[in-house]
Structures are given as C-alpha cells and as structure tokens.
Amino acid sequence: MNLAVHNNQPVIREKWPKWPIWIESAGGIIAEVAKSGRWSVRGSWTGLPCKEEAFSKLFAKYNRASYCAVTTSGSVSLLLALEALNIGPGDEVIVPALTWIAPVTAVLNAGAVPVMVDIDKDTTCIDPEEVRKAIGPKTKAIIPVHLHCSVADMDKIMKIAKEHDLYVIEDCSQAHGAKWGEHFVGTVGHVGVFSFNQEKVLTCGEGGALLTNDPKIFEMVFRTKTDGCSFDEARQSLGEDQLIYDSEFMGSNYCLSEFQAAILIAQLDKLKEWNEKREGNARYLDKHLLSIPGITPLKPYGKVTQRTYYEYAVRLDTGMFGGKDLADICNALSKETGFSIHPTDVPVYRNKLFSPWTKKRYAFYCRDKRFEELKTKKFPCCEEIYKSLAVFHHSILLAEREDMDDIIRAFEKVKKYSNEI
C-alpha cells in the first residue's frame, strides 16, 4: 500500500494559506468606525461619509457599473433583485439545476416558481438552449450562475432574454472580478448579485451586493433594503439621519453594518492582486494536470477574458482511476495534499436542503406542476458533472508555484495507485 489514505506518507505535509486573510489596513478603518459612533448606514451624520456608501461606490467603480447596493448576504441580494423587478406570485424564473440552493430559495421567497434546467457540461453553467426550451407564458426572468471558475454564455442568454422580454439576474457569488468580453460579470445582465460570505474571494464574513446600470432598479433595491427609505447625501448636519422617509413604499431592513463595510474596503484593495495570483497558479495546474490521462481541467469558453476562481475544478474520468467512486478518489487526493478536494455541490433537486414541503410558505410551489415535473425530469449533464467534477477552495491557489508542483505530484500518485483506493 502506497497511498496516504492507508496511513502512508502523504505527498504534502506543510500548512496551506488560511482563509479569510486579515489585512492590517482593515484595523484602522474598523477603529475609525468604532470611534465614529455611526455603526450603520442608519446612524446619523458624524462628519464623515458612512463606510457602506464608500464601499458601494468603490465596488461599482471596480466593476464599471453605475450603481451598487450593499446588503446582508448574497441570498438576500437575489431576493431584492427579484422584488425590484416586480417578480412574485404567478411568475416563473429559470435557474440552473446545478448550483448552491440560494437562487432557488430566493425565487421561492419572492413567491415565484423556480424552473430548473440542465447545464452545459463544458462550462458547468446554465445551458442557454435548455433555457429557451423552458420559457413559458409565466416566465419573467433568468438567473444564470457563474459557477466554479466559469462564466455562463451571456451573449446567448441576453439574446434569448431580449427575444422574450425577460430580465436577467446574474449570480456572480463565485465570480468577483471575472470578465465576459470587455464587461465585468454582473454588468451584462439587468442586475448582478454578489456574495461576501466567509468562503468567497471577497469577504466580510457575511454580506452581499447588487450591481445595475438602471437607476430605477437601483432605487427599488435600495428602498427595499432600507424599510422603504432613500439616502440623502446632502444631509450632512451632525446628528441628522441620511435615510429619509420620503415615499409610501414597504421594504425591510437588509443593511450591512459599518464594520463589515470597513473590512470590504480593505479586501477590495487586494482583490485584483489575489485574483491574478490565483489565475496564474490555476493556469499552471491546468497545463500539467492535463498531461495526466483521465484528468481534464475546466477550460474558459466563449468570451471569457478574465477568470476568477472560487473553486478550482477538474473533471476526472473515474474509469481511469480504477473505476472508483469520485468521492473515494477525492478522499485519497485530500489525504495526499492536506486540504479538502471534494465533488461539486449535489444538484439542487437532489440536495437535502431543497425541501420546500417543510415550510408552509412554499405550499404553493409543492402544488405547482413545475415541482411535480422534478419527479420525472432528467438532467443528464448535471448528473454527469456531479459524478466527475472534483473541486478545491481558491485559497490553495494563493500558495507558491512550488506548492502547485506538489499538488500535481499528488494527482499523479493517486492516479498511479488508484487500485489501492
């Protein structure tokens, strides 16, 4: 026996980069917030602009978008996008069947019906042709999710949306800084949604944001997240609130704290540098892993001009790994590398967390024909990818180039001794 999974010596012993990474400059910004007395956008003017407003402007500028609204999470951002576009009961929204559950849950929370469709196995993102087939009289929007290290085919999706007068909400929770042609993801569709949770490449623990170039959509989003209020930049008298009650509009409170915004400001300064390092190491891995029979890294497709990596992803031909189960191969790889390599998320329709029958508010969906269809509908590409795609977290790509050589050796070793798995 040669593999570490049988308590033999692994290829790699050293510790890997930890995530999140603390940035020293964040400490000064957080201290400034703490001393200011304004810990939320809801606080009164203290003589300085609030950090939520500052980050919103910086993130919009970074992505070359006109407007940005910051929220408490990516999941909430999806919900706010749907509500701002007046999508609710009686409407349908097309979503990929392979993704984290958040897009589907957001549609349900808006009172609308999610319509799951298959993915393109080359990108692992939503298949535009499957989108076209799923459009019906109740369809109001499409949510393409830019998954792993790929970008959905936005040209085809936007063409379909225009033909059928549909909204497009890009879920960019895994794609901060990726580009489709000359455009950053999140600015191609009508709205772009981002997550800043613990594991994302830009994080403050929990948080989210929406980008848009449409002032009306931005106003609706902002009011929806601030209990119906608008923001008055001109109100700059000490002790005066900048959120004003100037209309009859019902919203909720989804405002990020000033402490979280402070961390995001510091993190954003490092995003480009970290993304470039990840991409350089990923390309190196692509080149060398591709030379190992049975391993195929995900390639950039279409007009992707800049990739970001939430998860580095490779397809494994399990038949060339002794016919072993993907989960067992991943476990062997994890033991050799010292970090988690695992299959991608289970398709939504098979995810235990997708259980709408457990909530009374989703009863409408459990009675809907679209839910009934899931009992017999087939998603062959989702199933193929779930059985073959191995992924690992982006923080590993922040290690040094010689560490990438160790990862390559670990894959070679597991392939060579796959009969031992």
Word description of this protein:
The structure is a single chain. With 421 residues, the chain is α/β, with parallel strands linked by helices. It is 35% helix and 14% strand. It has helices spanning 24-36, 51-62, 74-84, 102-109, 128-134, 154-164, 215-225, 258-289, 326-337, 363-366, 369-373, 380-386, 401-416, and strands at residues 67-71, 92-96, 113-117, 139-142, 167-171, 179-180, 183-184, 191-195, 208-212, 230-231, 243-244, 295-297, 304-306, 311-316, 342-343, 389-393. The strands form four sheets. It has a seven-stranded mixed beta sheet with strand order 1-9-8-5-4-2-3, with helices on both faces. A four-stranded antiparallel beta sheet has the order 12-14-16-15. Helix 3 crosses helix 4.
Mean pLDDT: 96
Shape: globular
What strand order characterises the main sheet?
Answer: 1-9-8-5-4-2-3
Strand content: 5-15%
Oligomer: single chain
Low-confidence stretches: none
Tally of extended strands? Answer: 16
**Largest sheet: number of strands, sense, barrel closure:** 7 strands, mixed
Radius of gyration from CA coordinates: 22 Å
Order of helices and strands: HHEHEHEHEHEEEEEHEEHEEEHEHHHEH
Helix content: 25-40%
Features:
421 residues, alpha/beta, 35% helix, seven-stranded mixed sheet
Brief summary of the model shown:
By secondary structure, this protein is of the alpha/beta class.
